[in-house]
Amino acid sequence: MVLALLFLFSLTACSQADSKAEPTTASSDQAAVNTASDQAFDAKEYYKTLQNCVSQIKAKTDFVPDIALVLGSGLGDYADNVKVVKEIPYSEIDGFPVSTVPGHDGTLIFCEIKGKKVVIMNGRVHYYEGYTMPQVVLPLRVLHLLGAKTVILTNAVGAINEDYEVGDFVTNVDHISSFVPSPLLGENIDELGERFTDMSRVYDEDMISIVESIAKKENITTHRGVMIQVTGPQYETPTEIKNFRNMGADTVGMSTVVEAIAAKHMGMRVCTVSCITNMAAGMQEKLSHDEVKKASDNSSANFTKLIDGLLTEMKAE
Ligand code: HPA
Predict the structure, then answer these.
(1) 17, 34, 121, 126: which one is catalytic?
(2) Mean pLDDT, the chain, as a whole number?
(3) How remote is the CA of residue 164 from the centroid of ligand 1, in Å?
(4) Whether residue 97 has a cis bond before it, omega within 30° of 0
(5) Is the CB of 276 within 6 Å of ligand 1?
(6) C-beta of residue 255 within 8 angstroms of C-beta of residue 203
(7) Which atom of ligand 1 is nearest to the CA of 253?
(8) What pLDDT shows up at residue 103?
(9) What is the pLDDT of residue 269?
(10) Domains, the chain, ranges and CATH?
């Protein structure tokens, strides 16, 4: 029964990928990263695109980041107060997918924060925009090839766990990715990582502990949680949420888990900081993107404290 359900879900995911709108990359050779079907995925061309993105960035800056920080929906304000060394709009990097969602600016910001060399991805692309999963994780792969060995992934999520509240924060200790296509499908890119990657411990325990200790000091509520990623763009139904809760999920969102998978594949240290913007479907009246945006705006001061504290106390490598 469970297997049959999983099969049905994966069929739905595939047909959504096939009926894509027209996502845009800054590239003329979209085919290089187009993996609408596994057969169409050309690992060698994709790797060339990665390398080409790396060379274009290196031609614009010699900054070598240690840490990549991906800013999620409504959390982009964090970038307003950093000491910028170099900014590169995604649209200036041939091959980079360009975000179409309002609130996802689409700029790489090379900067120093709390003495750490950081590259901020201000804006990410999502599977629901019509991008393939390899396109979704392409920017993070490029940042790793530029030097980043650690990634901090941030996002807005709905709370499935009844003990959580809007405005709380969650650091993932595990995830469920079974309802979205893996970013690692298709021929493996051996230069990035191994074919069958262990996912027993994706999230870095030291970094989770640092987030918890900062939160305690600052009087911010955080939880250790399990996140489930869905494709979106529609929010879930109450029945889906009930099932996700039974599966062990505490939060739900439309990004982040696939990036964590791609990061783990490349051997990166991974930490997530999620802001709870709403209770999941069936736990509150109804859901809206405006509400999600408002709630993440309201959380921005606490979000800044957590990220600043984490960057201060974590090891660069
Ligand atoms: N579901 C999916 N994604 C989300 C939610 C949600 O309730 N809230 C913020 N992102």
Answers:
(1) 126
(2) 88
(3) 14
(4) no
(5) no
(6) no
(7) 3
(8) 54
(9) 98
(10) 42-313 (3.40.50.1580)
Q: Which residue has the tokens 């992934």?
A: 153
Determine phi and psi for 170, rounding to 5 degrees.
-135, 135
The set of residues, in sequence order, having a beta carbon less than 8 Å from that of 293 and lying 6+ positions away, is 73, 74, 103, 277
Q: Given the residues 32, 68, 90, 129, select the one marked as catalytic.
A: 129
Give 214-219's long-range contacts (Cβ < 8 A, gap of 24+): 214/305, 214/306, 214/309, 214/310, 214/313, 215/169, 215/306, 217/309, 218/302, 218/305, 218/306, 218/309
Which amino acid residue places its CA nearest to atom 3 of ligand 1?
253
Q: Nearest C-alpha to atom 7 of ligand 1 is from which residue?
A: 158
**In terms of Cα–Cα distance, which of 107, 110, 117 is closest to 67?**
117
Say how far apart CA 7 and CA 38 lie, in whole Å: 17
- CA 236 to ligand 1 centroid distance, Å: 8
| Res 162: pLDDT | 97
pLDDT digits (tens, 9 = 90+) for 24-70: 666 544 444 444 444 578 999 999 999 999 999 999 999 999 999 99
Handedness of CA 144, 172, 252, 120 (dihedral sign): negative
Question: Packing angle between helix 205-218 and helix 300-313, nearest 10 degrees?
Answer: 130
Of 299, 278, 280, the closest CA to residue 290 belongs to: 278
Angstrom distances, CA of residue 53 to CA of 27, 167, 283, 287, 304: 10, 37, 43, 37, 29
Low-confidence ranges of the chain (pLDDT < 50): 1-21, 28-38
Q: Ligand 1, atom 4: nearest CA belongs to which residue?
A: 253
Q: pTM for this one? A: 0.88
Matching residue, tokens 């360009």: 98
